[in-house]
């Protein structure tokens, strides 16, 4: 089982519009999806045929709508009601000449909420995987989760940035997945290039990460393993319609490939194909789209 954790799910209200500040803007089209990085990972895993369950928190009527949408999509979930009440957040995604997003903050989590989530994770076993994704208000929240599940020997995956990532490295996650911009920001480096990115990924290993998967958008992705093997995969050619969720689909594809084959190179190939399938779609890519793109992804392996 692959569990995903999203502490702050959302409704993603996506509109097509040419945004002009200071004026009334009318949408050419609109759609609502369940949002949040962990939910995207679970939905992508489900589309690839993997067993998954989305864990996290919701609040109010918006939270119930998130549950209802996941039910409609057939995605298993256990989303707890936040003890403090309030409403889950709404994110506004504007697709126009320039992609723009306004993400809501969402309700606050309490220590009691963490306790209830840790109780859900008591069923995690050695052969399971736990994926923690997205921004969190309290970094200690993530550290507590990683410490508990690490005792089971399960695989842990972390997709967050900034201080949350730094503090979680002490828990030695199996895999972390920053994008190139996030990786550079960790070290105060702008406009990071591939070769520099590999060096900084190695620095994160020295800080505690075991394997580092870095997404580079249209330039593809690379993986630096704990055995010092470097894998690079090119991105597929196609029209980018949507970048939301592409990194989450990359994670889902990578985990699916690793579970099915045990081979890092094949896992990276499937991950990049899944990420590109989402980038070329209005929402999350399908299994059929992912399989069609597989032959475009070439993986190169070298030693660091």
How are the secondary structure elements laid out?
Layout: E1 2-6, E2 10-16, E3 29-35, H1 37-47, E4 52-58, H2 60-72, E5 77-81, E6 89-95, E7 100-102, H3 111-120, E8 129-133, H4 139-150, E9 155-159, H5 162-168, E10 175-176, H6 180-186, H7 194-207, E11 211-215, E12 221-224, E13 229-233, H8 246-261, H9 264-279, H10 287-293, E14 299-303
Parallel strand pairs: 1-4, 1-8, 2-6, 4-5, 8-9, 9-10, 10-11
Antiparallel strand pairs: 2-3, 6-7, 11-12, 12-13, 13-14
Helix pairs in contact: 1-8, 3-4, 4-5, 8-9, 9-10
Number of strands: 14
Portion in strands: 15-25%
Quaternary structure type: single chain
Query: What class, by secondary structure content?
Result: alpha/beta
**Order of helical and strand elements:** EEEHEHEEEHEHEHEHHEEEHHHE
Largest sheet: 10 strands, mixed
Can you give the mean pLDDT? 94
Number of helices: 10
Biggest sheet, spatial arrangement of strands:
5-4-1-8-9-10-11-12-13-14
Rg, rounded, reads: 18 Å
């Amino acid at each position: 089982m692959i569990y995903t954790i999203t502490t702050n799910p959302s409704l993603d209200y996506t509109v097509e519009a040419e945004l002009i500040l200071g004026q009334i803007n009318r949408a050419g089209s609109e759609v609502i999806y369940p949002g949040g990085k962990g939910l995207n990972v679970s939905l992508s895993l489900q589309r690839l045929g993997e067993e998954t369950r989305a864990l996290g928190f919701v609040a109010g009527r918006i939270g119930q709508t998130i549950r209802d949408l996941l039910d409609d999509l057939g995605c298993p979930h256990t989303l707890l009601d936040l003890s403090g009440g309030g409403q889950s957040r709404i994110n506004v995604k504007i697709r126009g000449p320039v992609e723009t997003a306004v993400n809501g903050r969402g309700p606050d989590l309490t220590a009691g909420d963490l306790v209830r989530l840790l109780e859900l994770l008591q069923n995690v076993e050695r052969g399971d995987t736990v994926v923690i994704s997205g921004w969190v208000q309290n970094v200690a929240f993530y550290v507590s989760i990683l410490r508990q599940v690490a005792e089971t020997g399960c695989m842990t995956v972390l997709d967050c940035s900034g201080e949350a990532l730094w503090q979680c490295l002490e828990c030695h996650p199996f895999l972390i997945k920053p994008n190139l911009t996030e990786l550079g920001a960790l070290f105060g480096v702008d406009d990071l290039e591939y070769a520099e990115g590999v060096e900084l990924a190695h620095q994160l290993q020295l800080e505690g990460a075991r394997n580092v998967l870095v997404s580079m958008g249209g330039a593809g992705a690379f993986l630096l393993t704990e055995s010092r093997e470097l894998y690079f995969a090119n991105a597929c050619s196609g029209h980018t319609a949507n970048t939301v969720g592409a990194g989450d689909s990359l994670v889902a594809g990578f985990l699916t490939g690793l579970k099915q084959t045990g081979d890092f190179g094949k896992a990276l190939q499937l991950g990049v194909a899944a990420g590109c399938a989402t980038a070329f779609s209005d929402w999350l890519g399908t299994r059929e789209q992912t399989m069609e793109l597989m032959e475009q992804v070439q993986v190169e392996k070298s030693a660091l």
